[in-house]
Amino acid sequence: MGRKWNNIKEKKASKDASTSKVYAKFGREIYVAAKQGEPDPESNRALKVVLERAKTYSVPKAIIDRAIEKAKGGAEENYDELRYEGFGPNGSMLIVDTLTNNVNRTVAEVRSAFKKNGGNMGNSGSVAFMFDATAVIGLEGKTADEVLEMLMEADVDVRDILEEEDTVIIYADPEMFHSVQEAFKNIGITEFTVAELTMLAQSEVTLSQEDQDQFEKLLDALEDLEDVQQVYHNVDLEG
Questions:
Q1: 103-130 pLDDT, tens per residue?
Q2: What is the distance between the alpha carbons of residues 43 and 80, in angstroms, rounded to a whole number?
Q3: CA dist list (Å): 147 to 67, 144, 174, 196
Q4: Which residue spans traverse the membrane (predicted)?
């Protein structure tokens, strides 16, 4: 799973480079999560997940508070959560998650991004079956053996634990996202380098330089769309 972590790290780095877009996307996601239940992360699991993710991207408290206050104020902006699937060059596959208040606009923009950058949209389910929904949590200052012992003592099951450079990466079922974090928070570890609910490819493809250049144009075009929240893919960008 090491390369999968590299792809998450690569995506995180690219998002860190365009913070205003990142903050806008998180603001929308926080608002939607807060509207779906109580605007309190302790009673709203979806909101708690988003806030944990936002923390690892250093989203300012002012943006978080504004989105939650907007939801509390009864704002009537309605968003649909939609997923699109598609193909890029030479066996590359992508999943595109969106939040939109205009479905026609979003599907047209996503389809156009695929078409103009060497890809094509697929039917629902044409790609997703090759990915696994996964919780990914990373922390520093511990070894994989120490993390495993901590989780065993807390009776928390995970899929895998790996050391990548100075970071220990835990892969778990999505429903274990909070349990893993709480196990660490109970012993005083509250800072995480990554806290994501993601879609990890079951296998990855390595592209030629030409195909990778084309793929990265497609990836950038999709991630630049205002309605796109997340893009998952099966390409080893470091291959």
A1: 999 999 999 999 999 999 999 999 999 9
A2: 22
A3: 34, 5, 18, 18
A4: none
pLDDT per position as a tens digit, 11-26? 555 555 567 888 999 9
Q: 1 pLDDT band (50/70/90 cuts)?
A: very low
User: Residue 167's closest CA among 143, 197, 185, 133?
Assistant: 143
What is the three-class DSSP state of 34?
helix
What structural domains and CATH numbers belong to the chain?
2-72 (1.10.10.200), 80-129+205-233 (3.30.70.980), 131-201 (3.30.70.980)
The tokens 């892969």 sit on which residue?
A: 171
Q: DSSP E strands: which ranges in the chain? A: 80-87, 93-100, 120-121, 131-140, 160-164, 167-172, 194-201, 228-233
Rounded to whole angstroms, the Cα distance separating 137 from 77 reads 31
Taking alpha carbons only, the member of 155, 229, 236 closest to residue 203 is: 236
* pTM of the predicted model over 0.85: yes
136 phi, psi to nearest 5 deg: -125, 120
Tokens of 191: 């800072």
